[in-house]
């Protein structure tokens, strides 16, 4: 036991692991996180400004899978899992994404009065349109980039950036070596930025997600270790991806 004296929580996790290994459903030792961070972050909320809370909400139906994923993400207490769940909303919308021009063209074809008698011709047109779409967006990153530009605007997430402005104006280095580049040089730049910043934000979010899922950055072998300090450092980007996922969920069809 002496070798675990400096990190007794490691022993407890090890103890829990072997209890569960031999006895499924065995009672576990609950480990509470110790809050010892120097830096505190603010969770942005529309209702802090009464003018942002409408008297009447113009609600629309949201895809059930997206709604359920958002619900699970909101209920999950683990910061890393929350981030991954919100990213899954982006992935889901990306997977089923079709360019608006393609949608319009396909709808026009399906409305043709002679579509039944010329089914072969129109089928070929549909396939050609879909082929053009998939050639244009060959990978998920390209499609997600389009999702960002079509479904959200910079003003949609400016509150999340302003509330923790100092954080986004410096490099973020996680325990494990992964470094996320800063978005701005100084907080004053946040209000003067525009939709061009969305691409950089998307890249940072995607990079964080890849490391959380695969445990390392593929090219640099850098990681985000599962430490309490890293959970804290993730929070501003968690607040950001949460708002992005919500905005896209509302706009997605």
What can you tell me about this protein's structure?
This protein is mainly α and 253 residues long. The chain has three domains: 1-32, no CATH class; 42-97 and 141-251, no CATH class; 100-136. The protein is 54% helix and 2% strand. It contains nine helices and two strands; from the N terminus they run αααααααββαα. It has helices spanning 8-22, 64-75, 79-95, 100-110, 119-136, 140-151, 154-163, 197-214, 228-251, and strands at residues 172-173, 179-180. Strands 1-2 form a two-stranded antiparallel sheet. A hairpin with a 5-residue loop joins strand 1 and strand 2 (179-180). 18% of the residues are buried. The model has no long low-confidence stretch (mean pLDDT 86).
Highlighted features:
253 residues, mainly alpha, 3 domains, two-stranded antiparallel ribbon, 2 strands, globular
């Amino acid at each position: 036991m002496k070798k675990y004296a400096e990190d007794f929580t490691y022993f407890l996790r090890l103890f829990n692991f072997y209890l569960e290994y031999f006895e499924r459903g065995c009672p576990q030792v609950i480990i509470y996180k110790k809050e010892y961070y120097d830096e505190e972050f603010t969770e942005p909320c529309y209702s802090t400004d009464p003018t942002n809370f409408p008297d009447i909400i113009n609600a629309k139906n949201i895809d059930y899978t997206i709604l359920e994923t958002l619900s699970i993400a909101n209920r999950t207490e683990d910061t890393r899992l929350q981030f991954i769940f919100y990213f899954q909303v982006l992935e889901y919308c990306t997977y089923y994404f079709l360019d608006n021009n393609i949608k319009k063209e396909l709808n026009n074809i399906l409305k043709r009065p002679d579509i039944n008698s010329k089914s072969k011709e129109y089928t070929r047109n549909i396939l050609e349109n879909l082929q053009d779409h998939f050639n244009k967006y060959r990978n998920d990153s390209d499609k997600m980039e389009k999702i960002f530009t079509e479904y959200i605007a910079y003003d949609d997430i400016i509150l999340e950036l302003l509330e923790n402005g100092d954080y986004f104006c410096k490099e973020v280095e996680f325990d494990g070596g992964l470094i996320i580049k800063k978005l701005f040089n100084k907080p004053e730049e946040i209000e003067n930025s525009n939709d061009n910043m969305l691409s950089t934000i998307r890249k940072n979010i995607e990079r964080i997600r890849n490391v959380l899922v695969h445990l390392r950055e593929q090219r640099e072998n850098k990681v985000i270790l599962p430490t309490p300090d890293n959970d804290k450092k993730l929070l501003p980007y968690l607040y950001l991806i949460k708002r992005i996922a919500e905005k896209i969920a509302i706009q997605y069809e």
